[in-house]
Amino acid sequence: METNPLQEEHNHVISISEINSNHLASMYQKIAEPPRLLSNAAGKPSCSIFRVPQSLLEINGKSYQPHIVSIGPFHRGEPHLRMIEEHKWRYLGSLLSRTEPQGLTLGSLLSRTEPQGLTLQHYLKSIEPMEARARECYSETIHLSSDEFVELMVLDGCFLIELFRKYGRVVQFERDDPLVNMLWIIPFMVRDFLRLENQIPYFILEHLYDLITTSEDRQDSVKSLSFLALNFFNNHMNRPDEVIARLHYLTGKHLLDLLRSSVIPVDHVEPGQTTPSHIIHCVSKLRRAGIKLNPPKEYESFLAIKFKRGVIEMPKITIDDFMSSFLLNCVAYEQCHKSCSKHMTTYATLLDYLVNTYKDVEYLADRDIIENCFGNDEEVAQFINNLGKDVAFDNDRCYLSKMFGEVHKYYGDSWHVYWASFKYTYFDTPWSFISAFAALVLLILTLLQTLYSLLSYYHP
Predict the structure, then answer these.
(1) Which of 2, 35, 226, 307 is buried most deeply by CB count within 10 Å?
(2) Does any domain span residue 368?
(3) Are residues 434 and 412 in the same domain?
């Protein structure tokens, strides 16, 4: 008797009792739990503070980790950051000594009577309504209680504002303040304030700043929070004071985004549509094709790069500990944040295209495009190659896509390439010119000797 296959399939019944109920419950619990290490908020435009991707950490790990100060929750409580943590409380106390009402006591704080002035309680209460919005700015779940999170925002925010105001001479530093008198501390803090993982939302800073500053301060635009913050970082960027003054209106997602936005020229907008483009070759190959690289006479930012009649006009950039850290964290930020432009990623990719070896760095330094305060030329070349390594980038949708296309077209012109290659080979240095000239003279003499021998043979 033949068995119906469909009947066999229907007779195959799975017994639920065979499945371990505890294991089943555990699986359902995992399904119900939202992701923590990369939360659902990480995909929203509101999320702007991320853990650096592991692929980038493996290449430049130390450049993303704070060295002496923790800002925000990601590195809170780490032992090597404890020294500055103690000074945060000192700076908060210094701030409260100016904003709290005179003669304030614990009894008056607990009473229902509102004292005239800003107390610590005022700062905490003002941040509480912003807690949920601030938590959504982080790419992973923050395991802090509500009180701890609000305390962190107030402590770190007030520390940054107090430091910026003291540095901008709005408020006087204490005479023996070690953060200023020990010269090594400020440069480390400047770099730590720009680590992607070491941020608090900028709207928290703006809110606290509005609470702290008096109405007289706010009437003066150069005393804006953005101006004070950019002025603090400018000691390591050396931009003219008038440039910083023009940027007082800027805002950002956090301090890293603020400084990043300040170096993007206003008229540099990424194309809305795809522009067919190509990669460009390294400096050595471009030179053989007759393409030169020169710094422009005037420029607004190191991102303002142009190509005119066979010359790439590339503004000067100083490669040092500050700029290397800034560039790396900006690229990491642009890789993670879906809504921001990719200007720094484009610039990093351009540098990676141009530099293959230390000789390319040497040429750019000779052309006054790179100022090397980082190490030898080999170390700068390695840094630049790591800067563009494992980075997602779209050549056709970047602010330099048109320039990439123009350089590629010029490079492909055979006449330019042949003539430039000839000049590069024989006239690049005085010795090569002398050798070429000597070879030409020898060739002429050989031809004359041959001609003389022929004439002597036919007309003895």
Answers:
(1) 226
(2) yes
(3) no
